[in-house]
Amino acid sequence: MAAEQRRLIECVLLGTRDAEIDAKRNTSSCFTSKIGELPNCFPSLTLRYPSCSICNGILVHVVQVYCPLEGSPYHRTLNVFACPSRECFGKSESWTVLRSQCLETEAAQAQEPKANQETTVATRDWCEGADDWGMDDETESSAPPASSSMETDFTSQLQDLNLREQTQSFVPAGEGLLLPGPVPTFQPYYISVVDEGEFFVDADMDHAQRLLKEYQRREGVDVQQLISCDGEGESEKYEKRKARHGDEIFLKFMKKISVCQAQVLRYSRKGQPLFITAPPSNVKQMAPCCQSCGSPRIFEFQIMPALVSMLKSINADGLTVEFGTVLIYTCEKSCWPPSNQTPLEEFLFVQADPDQKLFK
Predict the structure, then answer these.
(1) Taking CA atoms, which of 74, 80, 149, 196 is between 20 and 30 Å from 164?
(2) With 0-12 CB in 10 A as exposed, 13-18 as middle and 19+ as buried, what is 342?
(3) For residues 119-142, b (16+ Cβ closer than 10 Å) or e, as one string?
(4) CA distance linking residue 204 with residue 260, whole number of Å
(5) pLDDT exceeds 70 at position 229
(6) What is the reported pTM?
(7) Cα separations in angstroms, 109 against 105, 167, 233
(8) H/E/C letters for each residue in 48-111?
(9) C-alpha–C-alpha distance, residues 358 and 266, integer Å
(10) Helices of type H across 220-259
(11) For 95-110, what is each residue's pLDDT tens digit?
């Protein structure tokens, strides 16, 4: 299949860091896609803050992605957490992804009058790609107003959340969030979205070219000749012939993100993940089936290495998380058990960063 045909089939949405969230004005909600801060919780759910399954330390909230599905009566949000302990960096077991859903009628309770225009715009910016996610005019006309009208089809049911036994006491933190006490947090920013196919290369291209030239210097690869290859087959042959250390996958990764080096998320439900290093040989069987309904899990989105340098601590000196890319897989049916009151845990896979200095 030609490269152009593949692009028409697989739509990729890129998330980039937007304006800083003013936490004092409480301008984020469960309908906000954001970096950092504490997660927001739907009014019908109780989210018990997770801990690291390796060191049992408190996790830090990395991203929240509001991603409802087309034709679904549910609002839907994914929250990703990571362990800030250096001993746990690069290990999938030190990360957690939770999926939360609630009916539109339940979500109406969370629509606060004080939500300002900035919040509405931030949510709408992410959802401007709704048509690219498969939303048609009929779905749009029957959807509820404001952020809930941006329903777009993403995933399905999730497995029951199996949180590890905790010895500490949890205290309410508002919006159904239970915390084990003070938790480390990153500076919050809105996430805006752009269709990768419509992204116009501007100043970011200079940065991307510098990165590719650095790779060329180290690997002896002629970047310009590589980029000029029209056919995927020709490009692959050239990479295999020229890359000295067998890291063709990393080279492809660099090529793909070069048009938008600032991307912190790549969203492509049912699409193909972009690996930064060679994946396991059993990658297709890597994600276990949903523990709730038994359905297969599918790739939904991934967190990109550019985010690492954007994570700034609010209340903990030296707080950081390092990774190459984090791949999120969710239940194909996006199942939601009746009367469920807690988020469901999904599957993720972390690839360590082979050369983090290139993304700083």
Answers:
(1) 74
(2) middle
(3) beebbebbbebbebbebeeebeee
(4) 6
(5) no
(6) 0.73
(7) 8, 32, 53
(8) ECCECCCCCCECEEEEEEECCCCCCCEEEEEEEEECCCHHHCCCHHHEEEEEEEEEHHHHHHHC
(9) 19
(10) 223-228, 232-242, 248-257
(11) 999 999 999 887 775 5
Tokens coding 1: 């299949």
Sign of the four-CA dihedral 168, 172, 173, 178: positive
Q: CA 242 → CA 67, 68, 235, 285, distances in Å?
A: 40, 43, 11, 31
Rounded to 5 degrees, φ, ψ at 219 are -105, -10
323-350: average pLDDT: 96
CB 71 within 8 A of CB 152: no
Placement of tokens 């690492």 in the chain? 308
Closest CA to 250 of 351, 155, 349: 351
- Residue 20 carries which side chain, given as an amino acid letter? E
Q: What tens digit of pLDDT does each residue of 149-161 get?
A: 333 333 333 233 2
Would you say 331 and 297 are in contact if contact means Cβ atoms under 8 Å apart? yes
Burial class (CB in 10 A: 0-12, 13-18, 19+), 220: exposed
Among 319, 327, 311, which residue's Cα sits nearest to residue 359?
311
For 2-58, the three-class secondary structure string (H helix, E strand, C coil) is CHHHHHHHCCCEEEEEEEECCHHHCCCCCCCCEECCCCCCCCCCCEECCECCCCCCE
**Angle at CA 233, nearest 5°, toward 263 and 1?**
80
The type of residue at 14 is L
Q: With residue 190 as reference, give the H or E element that holds it.
A: strand 189-195
Give the pairing type, strands 13-20 and 47-48. Answer: unpaired
How would you class 276 by CB atoms within 10 Å of its CB: exposed for 0-12, middle for 13-18, buried for 19 or more?
Answer: buried
Query: Can you tell me which residue has the tokens 């992804």?
Result: 97
Query: CA torsion angle for 129, 69, 266, 178 (degrees, to 10)?
Result: 120
Which region among 172-186, 263-277, 324-338 has the lowest average model confidence (pLDDT)?
172-186
